[in-house]
Amino acid sequence: MNKCNNNSFSVSVEMLVAHKRAVEMYLRDQGTHDELLDRFSNQLNLLAIYDPTERISIEVVSRNIEMFASWLKEPNLGLKIAPYSTREQRRLAFFYSNDVSLLDYFRILVRYICISSEVMRFEISVDESEICLEMIPNSPTTVSIHQTEGFFASICDAVKQAHGVVPEVIEFTHINPTENLSLYQSILGVIPKFQQTTNRMFFRNLSRDTLLSERKPSVRSLQLIQSMEAVKRLEVETESWNERCRFLLRILMYYGEPSKIILAELLAVTPRTLQRHLDKEGQSFRYLLSDLRKELAAEYLKNSKCTCEDVAFLLGYKDVGQFYRVFRTWYSKSPGQFRADSG
């Protein structure tokens, strides 16, 4: 049994299960699933077994992928199974219908991916004409071609489903493992450039959206969120500042750790004025955010479809470990224990 330690980059078990199902669906579509299981039944014992209660070290994951790809003699295994895997992950399916700008769609999508898997981290840059996603391996000597191409294919599939667009350019640092360039065209929407200095993809910035800060919604999304809040106020007619803040904070958590400055901007007041309104209602920004997270954490965990990675993402945490530590201060038990007791 292989468990990841605190000093190791890891992958969520949910993502591994999605990959496993993706491989099975891919092989069944090829008509070779049962035949290959028979042929490789002995070799399958060499694969590392994972504990479904643990996150798994990326070294173990990479080794399993490389072994399986070599058995299949499949140089593009990651590329081929990625679309299957993407649609197996419930939270990613949410992004297919998420009505946010393309720029913020990328930011939210890669934030979730990085919580589920620490194989890669992403840097997003934007100008008037294009949006660039650069993918940087956390452990360059460990990450395989299959993982790199798989991540790119997953993102391309999700973006095409949600926004109907494909990248203009894709660059890979590795050499082309196959002569089948049409495969890349069909899955990624474009034939990549190989042996480049970085792994990155470029999309057209059709809406000319701009990014103001790392944790702040883009200009276009800020306008959309303000419109949503205005419509809600008209529907409710009278609403406290506490309720208005809770509504907006729930949205801002998608972008990571919310700040009072951004919240005040959405409410068209200064941070000091916002705090004055909250003081009158016996609230503070810090308590309000913590209380909302505590309430939502319990709500999400009672929903059996939400994994701990899902909950960490929905509450704006940067990783699952941070969520676990805070959750124990709230309920004096782990999220898993809480869910078992609530069931």
Structural class label: alpha+beta
Rg, Cα atoms, Å: 22 Å
Query: pLDDT under 50 segments (min length 5)?
Result: 1-6
Domain tally: 3
Total of helices = 16
Helix content: 55-70%
Strand content: 5-15%
Largest sheet: 4 strands, antiparallel
The end-to-end distance, rounded to whole angstroms, is: 28 Å
CATH topology of the largest domain: Arc Repressor Mutant, subunit A
CATH architecture of the largest domain: Orthogonal Bundle
Number of strands: 6
Query: What are the secondary-structure elements, in order, as H or E?
Result: EHHEHHHHEEHEHEHHHHHHHH
Shape: globular
Mean pLDDT: 86
CATH superfamily of the largest domain: Homeodomain-like
The top level CATH class name of the largest domain? Mainly Alpha
Major β-sheet strand ordering: 3-4-6-5
Please provide a written account of the structure.
About 55% of the residues lie in helices and about 10% in strands. It is an alpha+beta fold. α1 (about 15-30) crosses α4 and α6 (about 100-115) runs antiparallel to α14 (about 310-315). The radius of gyration is 22 Å and the shape is globular. The two termini are about 30 Å apart. About 35% of the residues are buried.
